């Protein structure tokens, strides 16, 4: 699965050990878990229900995907975005999460800490 690490938004997958499918809704979330910041590959929701409450938001990594049921819409814009996404991921990994968040003027202070 590593050949196309970032599946497109709208992709529906089953996570290893899961009993409900998940739909990918975004990339590289960095949730604050009791003061510990950790980057994940994806943010998503259960499928087909969607986001019914904030407690049902999922964060997971590509290697946790057991099966891909469908992939989201793909075009040149998505391909270009995925290349940018890979560069951002490399930058976060090389700089560290805190340094990246502190040096990113595009991120609001509230976004950095939530």
Features:
single chain, 114 residues, five-stranded antiparallel sheet, two-stranded antiparallel ribbon, 3 helices, disordered C terminus
Describe the structure.
By secondary structure, this protein is an alpha+beta fold. It has one domain. The protein is about 30% helix and about 25% strand. The chain contains three helices and seven strands, in the order βββββββααα. A five-stranded antiparallel β-sheet has the order 6-5-2-1-7, with no helix packed on it. A two-stranded antiparallel ribbon has the order 3-4. A hairpin with a 2-residue loop joins strand 3 (about 30-35) and strand 4. Helix 1 (about 75-95) packs across helix 2. The radius of gyration is 14 Å and the shape is globular. The relative contact order is 0.20. Residues about 110-114 have low confidence and may be disordered.
Task: Offer a concise description of the structure.
This protein has 3 helices and 7 strands, in the order βββββββααα.
Helices and strands in order:
Layout: E1 12-15, E2 21-27, E3 32-33, E4 36-37, E5 42-47, E6 58-60, E7 65-70, H1 76-95, H2 97-103, H3 109-113
Antiparallel strand pairs: 1-2, 1-7, 2-5, 3-4, 5-6
User: What is the overall silhouette?
Assistant: globular
Strand content: 25-35%
**In this structure, how is the largest beta sheet organized?**
5 strands, antiparallel
Helicity, in percent?
25-40%
Residue stretches low in confidence (pLDDT < 50, at least 5 long) are 108-114
Count of separate DSSP helical elements:
3
- Look at the structure and give the mean pLDDT: 88
State the oligomer.
Answer: single chain
Structural class: alpha+beta
N-to-C SSE string, H for helix and E for strand? EEEEEEEHHH
Structural domain tally: 1
In angstroms, what is the radius of gyration? 14 Å
Question: How would you write the strand order of the largest sheet?
Answer: 6-5-2-1-7
Determine the N-to-C terminus distance: 30 Å
Number of strands: 7
């Amino acid at each position: 699965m590593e050949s196309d690490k970032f599946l497109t938004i709208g992709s529906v997958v089953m996570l290893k050990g899961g009993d409900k499918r998940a739909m990918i809704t975004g990339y590289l979330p960095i949730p604050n878990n009791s003061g510990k910041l950790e980057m994940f590959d994806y943010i998503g929701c259960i499928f087909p229900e969607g986001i019914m409450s904030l407690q049902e938001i999922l964060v997971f990594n590509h290697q946790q995907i057991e099966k891909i049921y469908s992939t989201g819409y793909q075009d040149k814009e998505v391909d270009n975005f995925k290349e940018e996404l890979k560069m951002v991921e490399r930058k976060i990994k090389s700089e560290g999460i805190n340094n990246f968040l502190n040096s990113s003027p595009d991120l609001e202070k509230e976004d950095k800490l939530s």
